[in-house]
Structures are given as structure tokens and as C-alpha cells.
Design goal:
296 residues; 39% helix; alpha/beta; seven-stranded mixed sheet; 11 helices; binds S-adenosylmethionine
Length: 296
């Protein structure tokens, strides 16, 4: 490689780390690239000698990151709660606010006291929500849907790699929102959890280039006011949920009042908004009345 002296000189990871820090201006990404390419343990790996093959892999990843590709796609995986999920351009990068969505959903499931709940994740992408629920809630059965075949392929790979017997309890289904589910699930679902697209068409220009240029548009954008997908998810929920069932969905902070209103308008009786880690309104939890006959 030759940057650290003569071609024969042994190059150590510390010099590649310095190179990446300098070129990216970002020490976290530099460290992740070193850890990933070397497979070594931080910080001991910095003293280890770089092999030709791992060095080439590192330089290729560094070049991709320099061109603006999100670090998560460059690494090819990203952590979400207890999972290490494979991610590529077919799926949205799983985000910290969605970890909070799962946290809120788990709390609501615990509150409801249902053993082995039936949960639906609409628009599963990498499978982040669905697989987390299956791994973290003993015996939960989960339907995970998406319209995108590419996303379902990624979710399927992630499911195969998940422990806790999750693979046997998560069913993947392709289709347009509720249309992906078998009709006989109607009226039986304990909870629907969804992080649908919620960016308004007019807001796309304001997204950071790392998001707008690299992540799938169909994972992000939902009509003129960003509410097209949330309307479908909420309006369909009363038909699929059992009486007393709940919906938990992610939204943009400025949509909180509108989304709460949509939930109350379709028959949910309690609709609360929870904050994300930054303290912004991010998660709606709405619960159907108990014992009411569901419209079919
Ligand atoms: N659940 C994942 C997460 O939280 O990281 C991905 C969420 S991403 C914001 C929204 C997902 O909805 C994408 O995977 C996208 O393919 C899917 N989607 C978009 N339109 C859809 C539709 N009409 N029916 C089903 N899924 C759809
Ligand atoms: N949090 C994403 C963003 O801002 C939006 C995700 C979504 O639409 N569900 O960019």
C-alpha cells in the first residue's frame, strides 16, 4: 500500500485510522471502518499489521463513505436494539427513534397482559421492528409486511440470523399495507406497530443528501402532507385489531396532533403521544375500546 513508507513496510491499523479520520473528518466512522475491515478489537487492533486483503477492503469502504454513502450501507450492517441487522440500499437504515417505537410497543404489550401476542409490523423494511418484537417478547407471533420485494429479501436474511427462535414466529408477507395479510387475521391482531413513510413530498428537498440521495424514496415519502401511509394504517386498523387492540406508529413531531386526530376519528378511544430520545413527539399509541364489535 506504501503510504506508511516503502511498499515492504508493515502498515498498522493506526495509520489507516488516521488516514480515515483525516479524509472523513469523523472519528466514529473511521473507527467503525477499522473495526469492520480488521475484525479486531478496539483499541488493541491499532497496533496490528494490516494484511493486503483487509487493507484493500478498508480503502474500498473509505472511498464509498467519502462519496457520501451512509456509513450503515458501507458497513453493510447496523445495530438496532439487540440485533445486528444487515442493511443495504433496499431498506431504510434503522434509526434510534424507531428503537423507541419498539420500546413503547413492548410497554403497551406488557400493560395489556396478553401472553404470546399477535403483532403486525406494516412496512417492515430491514425487519427491525418485527424481529425485535419476536426476540424480546417470549412467544410473540409477528406478521411483517412490505410492498418492496427487495426489503423483504433483506428482512428474510435478518430473520434467518436472529436468535431466540424468532425465525419460527415471524411471517413475512408482501403487499400493499393491510392487503398483505390473510383475511382470516381480521379481528384477531393484538397490536399493529408501524414506521411507515411520513415525509411530505415538499420536504424531500430539505432532507440531508445522505438520506435523500441514498435511502429508498418509497420508504420515506408519503404524499403531499406526509400522512398518506399513516391514514391507511390507522383507517384499516380497527378491522384487523381485536377489541382493546392497539396501534403504535412512528410519525414526524409536527404531525402529532393530526395523527392523534386520525386515530380518534376511526374509533380509537385512547390516543397518546410519546417522545423520542430528543424529546420530540414521535410515537402514537392508540387503543380500541374493549368489547366493541369490529366493523368488517
Ligand atoms: N420498519 C422499518 C424501520 O423502521 O426501519 C422500515 C420503515 S420505512 C420508513 C417504511 C417501509 O414501508 C419501507 O420498507 C417501504 O418499502 C414500505 N412501504 C412503502 N409503501 C408501502 C406500501 N404501500 N405497502 C407496504 N409497505 C410499504
Ligand atoms: N426519520 C426519517 C427521516 O427523517 C423518516 C422516516 C420515515 O419516513 N418513516 O428522515
Amino acid at each position: 500500500m506504501g503510504r506508511a513508507g516503502t511498499a515492504a513496510a508493515a502498515e498498522r491499523w493506526s495509520s489507516l485510522y488516521d488516514l480515515a479520520r483525516e479524509r472523513l473528518g469523523d472519528r466514529s466512522s473511521a473507527r467503525w471502518l477499522v473495526e469492520d475491515a480488521s475484525g479486531g478489537t478496539w483499541p488493541g487492533v491499532l497496533d496490528e499489521v494490516v494484511t493486503a486483503r483487509t487493507g484493500e477492503h478498508f480503502m474500498a469502504m473509505l472511498a464509498r463513505r467519502e462519496r457520501g454513502e451512509p456509513i450503515q450501507y458501507v458497513l453493510g450492517h447496523w445495530s438496532f436494539r439487540r440485533l445486528d441487522l444487515m442493511v443495504d440500499r433496499r431498506v431504510l437504515v434503522p434509526r434510534p427513534e424507531t428503537e423507541v417505537v419498539v420500546e413503547v410497543a413492548l410497554a403497551e404489550l406488557a400493560r395489556s397482559g396478553v401472553a404470546q401476542p399477535l403483532v403486525v409490523d406494516l412496512g417492515t423494511g430491514s425487519g427491525a421492528i418485527a424481529i425485535s418484537v419476536a426476540v424480546e417478547v417470549a412467544g410473540a407471533r409477528v406478521w411483517a409486511t412490505d410492498r418492496s420485494p427487495g426489503a423483504l429479501a433483506v428482512a428474510s436474511a435478518n430473520l434467518s440470523g436472529a436468535g431466540s427462535g424468532a425465525a419460527g414466529r415471524v411471517q413475512l408477507a408482501r403487499g400493499d399495507w393491510w392487503g398483505a395479510l390473510p383475511p382470516d387475521l381480521a379481528g384477531t391482531v393484538d397490536m399493529v406497530v408501524s414506521n411507515p413513510p411520513y415525509v411530505a413530498e415538499g420536504e424531500v428537498a430539505d432532507l440531508p443528501p445522505e438520506v435523500a440521495d441514498w435511502e429508498p424514496g418509497e420508504a420515506l415519502v408519503a404524499g403531499p402532507d406526509g400522512l398518506d401511509a399513516l391514514r391507511v394504517v390507522l383507517a384499516g386498523a380497527p378491522r384487523w385489531l381485536r377489541p382493546g387492540g392497539a396501534v403504535v406508529c412512528e410519525m414526524a413531531p409536527h404531525q402529532a396532533e393530526a395523527v392523534r386526530g386520525l386515530a380518534l376519528a376511526v374509533g380509537f378511544e385512547r390516543a397518546d403521544v410519546h417522545a423520542d430520545l430528543a424529546g420530540r413527539d414521535r410515537v402514537l399509541v392508540a387503543v380500541l375500546p374493549e368489547g366493541r364489535r369490529q366493523p368488517h
